[in-house]
Amino acid sequence: MSETTSTREEKKPPLNGRRALPPNNSNDEENEVPEVDPFGLIPRGFNPKDYLRVVDIYMFKEPQEINKQQHHTDKYYNPKLIVRRGQPFQIQIDFNRPYRPETDQFWLEYLMGRYPQRNKGTYIPIIVGNVLKPGEWGAKITHRENNSIRLSIMSSATCIIGKFRLYVAVWTPFAILRTRRNPETDTYILFNPWCQQDAVYLDDEKEREEYVLNDVGIVFHGNVEDIKSRSWSYGQFEENILDACLFLMDKAELELSGRGNPIKICRVASAVINSRDDNGVIAGSWNNSYDSGVAPSAWTGSVDILLEYYSSKQPVRYGQCWVFAGVFNTFLRCLGIPARLITNYSSAHDNNANLRLDFFLDDEGKVDTRLTKDSVWNYHCWNEAWMTRPDLPVGFGGWQVVDGTPQETSDGMYRCGPASVQAIKHGHVCFQFDAPFVYAEVNSDIIFSRMEKNGTQVIERIDTTHIGQLIVTKEVGGDGMVEITEEYKFREGSDEERLALETAVMYGVKKQTTRDTTYQPQTDIDMDFQVQKAVLGNDFKVTITFRNRSRNTYTATTYLSGNIVFYTGVSKSEFKKHSFSAKLEPSSSSSFDVVIKSSEYMSDLLEQASFHFFVTARINETGKILAMQKATILEIPTLRIKTKGELVAGKEMSVIVEFTNPLKQTLENVTLRLEGPGVLRTIKKEFRSIPMNSTLTWEVKCIPMRPGLRKLIASLNSDALRHVYGELNVQIQKP
């Protein structure tokens, strides 16, 4: 075999016995398309210039022109044509002479990827006809003048999402003549929530403006007793973000032919958003040490994360649940899938999905951290994406849970969803994907139990209402919070709720009965405790109240344990132990205060200033135990933002960020971040230290690009203090 043929052999992509073509899963790769495609031998006198020739193609791709206006894509900071599927768009072709329909024949070709194939939807030839059928590929001439024609092109309402290359082909007797490859005519096609035939069709304009076109949102965090909120910049229209989102599908190796299906896209995206098992976008870290990366609390939006990943192709460090959910929301809205960010307060992370979280107590009534594997997250953020579910029975379309935070594996990868919210509510957890896991997150019971010396397990208390007691999202058209708990579950204790639970158990959600264990609670004494609202760095108190409804006098040996916890409910350290004996008089209530000093908690404090208190009391006369647990959060000071100068698009203005250190210590290694979509790109500034009680002022000059209501978002991050945010709505005037 000669040298030349052997090298040619090696260059062929490796074939396997099952497919003739290699996988086609990169939107970025291209094939070479011949400009002259001969039918056979071309006669000597053939001159392509004698035939109809394309001189220029005009795409109407400026933000103020018809295509981007009609397709709601005028906000994308991208010079190319961006349209939504299932809706007509316009282009103009200039020829070298007037077009003669009787004799001239031309057609359009849209191609994607390296191996375009007609049956895969990656090669789309469009013959020019007389009518456009709704939701099917087609083109018709709407205007002819001199050497130019204006075309209206309809794309299929189920076509692939991504970037297509456009060629115009002209038929001649001896060859097909094509336009040469021109990136200027590339066309992005996105999902279309405005089109009734699209799987993501949403019928309410206000909801479309919120869930597709709004580029900032709110993350609700904190805990159920003390809800906190912060803004997040999704930035789905910012420069290069659309390309970065398409790259994520290439990274996930989603076959191009599957990219018209929002179910498939959500499923692969929920895996590629986290870095576990596929080197995806964000590396999670829940251990409070973020060396060689950015603390999760410092991010103000998704743009920096996606752009860093797009350029480095390496996981960006670090994220926690709201960061995964924020970036996932950007991805979905950018591609045109309606999406919203959800917070579930008191979210169960149930390691074996048996609908119960087991907290094991030791002899003293303290939680045994060795045996207790399940945890309650103060809150957990995930996303909902809106789509039909033709793969499920009728009635399970609409909002679907998708979650990019790596918690448990699904089909061997860290991913979750899409799971129908409607199916979760009614307990129909047999329907794909991952409904049992989400059902457990919002419906588990907490069971406190203790091992007796003889090995029997004694259940001391069952709490059926703590988990998933509040599920919220941002309201449409405003920054307020709207409760959507009723979309996930029926009212606690109602007949429908029991029925949904029985359905879920029938479909294989494990629910252990408590029959194999003894459970006889003390019924004539109630115990509760309240944690005083407190600002970070101050002392506060915990008040424990007993109500003795019996005619007996009891004494209760009471134990309070204060733990500093991650928002995931995992304990870092116990900072407070306090025991006392309480005398409970018949038919009366009594309260006891325990003071928590700032010196006891400040040294170990984690970023979300989150505490978890366990109070257990043994009634000495009966040996029964009362147990209760609550999470609480300290008030964290905020950043103040103000502006100086005229707020006019195209004119310079100033943004001023101020912060006063409230702690009894100097803040070291302080980083400030500031961003505002349409006003300024993310800017970072480092300060070595801020002494106690002193105020830091930072002024940034910028030129806002877009008029309208915009939001500025700032965060402060330091060794001792995180989760410090500020925001400001600004109205940018037209010049």
Entry summary:
The chain is mainly β and 735 residues long.
Task: Please describe the structure with a list of short key phrases separated by commas or semicolons.
12 helices; Immunoglobulin-like; eleven-stranded mixed beta sheet; Coagulation Factor XIII, Chain A, domain 2; mainly beta; 39% strand; single chain; six-stranded antiparallel beta sheet; 735 residues; disordered N terminus
Write structural notes for this entry:
- This protein has about 725 residues and is mostly beta strands.
- It folds into 4 domains: about 35-190, Sandwich (Immunoglobulin-like), CATH 2.60.40; about 215-505, Coagulation Factor XIII, Chain A, domain 2 (Alpha-Beta Complex), CATH 3.90.260.10; about 525-635, Immunoglobulin-like; about 640-730, Immunoglobulin-like (Sandwich), CATH 2.60.40.
- It has 12 helices and 40 strands.
- Strands 1, 2, 3, 4, 5, 6, 7, 8, 9, 10 and 11 form an 11-stranded mixed beta sheet that branches. A 6-stranded antiparallel beta sheet has the order 22-19-18-16-25-26, sandwiched between helices.
- A hairpin with a 6-residue loop joins β39 (about 710-715) and β40 (about 725-730).
- α4 packs across α6 (about 305-310).
- The longest helix has 15 residues, at about 320-335.
- Mean pLDDT is about 90; it is low at about 1-15.
- Belongs to the transglutaminase superfamily. Transglutaminase family.
- One of its GO terms (molecular function) is metal ion binding.
- Its cofactor is Ca(2+).
- It is found in: Cytoplasm; Secreted.
- This is Coagulation factor XIII A chain.
